[in-house]
Each structure stands twice: as C-alpha cells, then as structure tokens.
Design goal:
By secondary structure, this protein is an alpha/beta fold. The chain has one domain: 3-Layer(aba) Sandwich (Rossmann fold). The chain has 9 helices and 7 strands, in the order βαβαβαβαβααβαααβ. It has a 7-stranded parallel β-sheet with strand order 3-2-1-4-5-6-7, sandwiched between helices. Helix 1 packs parallel to helix 2 and helix 4 runs parallel beside helix 6. 48% of the residues are buried. The model has no long low-confidence stretch (mean pLDDT 97). The structure holds NADPH dihydro-nicotinamide-adenine-dinucleotide phosphate (NDP). NADPH dihydro-nicotinamide-adenine-dinucleotide phosphate (NDP) binds next to helix 1, strand 2 and helix 7.
Length: 244
C-alpha cells in the first residue's frame, strides 16, 4: 500500500537511504533537510527517475514554527503524513568537563525536541486515520553510553522513553511507535572519526564491518510496513553485534 512518508534529515546519510528505501517500497516520500537543498533535491530526483513520487521540504525540525510549516507543506504536496521517520540528528562531541551548555542544548534540541515536535504535529492526522507509523532513529550510544557523547547519548536514550510512552498512548488507534538504534554506520557523521577509531569500531562488531545506511533503512522499511502492526515500543538495534 502506498503511504505518505516524511523523513527528517532525509537528504544525506541514513535518512537518504531510508527515503530511497521507502520510495522503492511504493511510498510517496517527503525529504526534509535543514541547510543543503541540493542534497535533498538529488534524492527527490533519484526517486522520480525510478518512477516514484517525492518532494523536498526545508525546515529546521528543532523549531516549532518550522515544523508546523513542514507538516503543512507535506500535506499540500503529498497528503497527510502516515509514516514519520524522526531521523535528523547532530553530534557535538566533547568530554563533559569541556562541554558547553550550547553544545548540550543544540544536541537535545535537534535529536529530542524535534522528535516531540514532529510526532505531535502528525499525530492528529494519524489518530483520525486510525493508522500510523512513527520510527525514530536512536543510537547504541543511547543504550550503552559513550565517552565524549553525554549530550548525544542522553538525547538518544530519551527518545526511547518518549517512544515507549507514545506507543502506550496510541497503540489502540493503529499507530505504532518504535526506535531503530544503529551502531557505527558509514556516513558524513562518522567520516570525522579517525582511522584508529573506525578500526576499533569494526573489530568490536560480531560481523566485522561498519554498517551501511541501507542496513538501517531495511529495519525502518519493515517497521513502516503494513505487517509490522503488532510491533510497538521496541528498539531494534542495527549494529552488527556491537552491543551483544
Ligand atoms: P548525517 O550527518 O550524514 O546527516 C544528517 C541529516 O540530518 C542531514 O540530512 C541534515 O540535513 C539533517 N539535519 C541536521 N540537522 C537538522 C535539523 N535541525 N533539521 C532538519 N534536518 C537536519 O547523519 P547520519 O545519516 O549519520 O545520521 C542520521 C541519524 O542516525 C541521526 O539521528 C544520527 O544521530 C543517527 N545515527 C547515526 C549513526 C552513524 O554511525 N552515522 C549511528 C547511530 C545513530 P542538512 O544536510 O540539510 O543539514
């Protein structure tokens, strides 16, 4: 069944793979970005050239007004959002002793407040339709913690509590709410890590490689599907066995 999907931060990395994967599954996809319209536009073009339907919509998803506009534009362009993927995220790493309150606040705003704002903004439509899929991208950092990522790990752990609470609120209305928690995935976000850190990350996995954005997209596609209606409030870890 073709649904309207919104992927926040769908222009690059994991979000891009999620957007392409959902479009391949027949969904009409809104690709959100914050600063790089050309990246979002290239995802839209790729989807269209494969016969799919997509639009790009710019919005800083940590900003309430911008989120309101985003959801309105998606509604006008494609229809009410039926599948929301809270993917947009940032890091501002640093050991606690040196972490500024700006770095703390920005990570919490983009990674956590955005999930609250976007989920709230699409909820009315989902409740009315008695169907919806909300999938947030967490991180193994939110499960196990990571030195230098107190802000990031806190934001990702909080997304899990948020998810489980909303899952209980709306489960009776055909809406599922889940988290996909990736390990190390090859994107711009991890490109900053040095060779030694990447080697260490690879050797800590059971499967002996870094993850690909498509590995995460496959889990999202499953949770977004019609057949996943009995799976809610869960955290699906996609980390090659890093945390086992
Ligand atoms: P990238 O840095 O590659 O891409 C980030 C995406 O988010 C871009 O599309 C960017 O858009 C968008 N974005 C950033 N800030 C905002 C904002 N305020 N509003 C709207 N969009 C925004 O990240 P990844 O693909 O690596 O990460 C995607 C998600 O997966 C994040 O939530 C991240 O925390 C999580 N994750 C990533 C892991 C990894 O190893 N890569 C591991 C675990 C979790 P633009 O370019 O326009 O700014």
């Amino acid at each position: 069944m073709s649904r309207v999907a919104l992927v926040t931060g769908g222009s690059r990395g994991i979000g891009r793979a999620i957007a392409l994967g959902l479009a391949r599954g027949g969904h009409r996809v809104a690709v959100n970005y914050s600063t790089r319209p050309e990246a979002a536009e290239s995802v839209v073009q790729e989807i269209r050239s494969n016969g799919g339907e997509a639009i790009a919509v710019g919005a800083d998803v940590s900003d309430e007004e911008a989120v309101g506009r985003l959801i309105r534009e998606v509604g006008e362009g494609l229809g009410p959002v039926e599948v929301l993927v809270n993917n947009a995220g940032v890091t501002r790493d640093g050991l606690l002793a040196r972490m500024s309150s700006d770095d703390w606040d920005r990570v919490i705003e983009v990674n956590l407040r955005s999930a609250f704002l976007c989920t709230k903004a699409v909820m009315r439509g989902m409740l009315k339709n008695r169907w919806g899929r909300i999938i947030s991208i967490g991180s193994v950092s939110g499960l196990a913690g990571n030195p230098g990522q107190a802000n990031y790990a806190a934001s990702k752990a909080a997304v899990i509590g948020f998810t489980k609470s909303i899952a209980k609120e709306v489960g009776g209305r055909g809406i599922t709410v889940n988290v996909v928690a990736p390990g190390f995935i090859e994107t711009d976000m991890t490109a900053e890590l040095g060779e030694a850190a990447l080697e260490a990350a690879i050797s800590a996995t059971a499967v002996g490689r870094l993850g690909r954005p498509e590995d995460v997209a496959a889990a999202v596609a499953y949770l977004a599907g019609e057949n996943a209606g009995f799976v809610t409030g869960q955290v699906i870890v996609v980390d090659g066995g890093l945390t086992i």
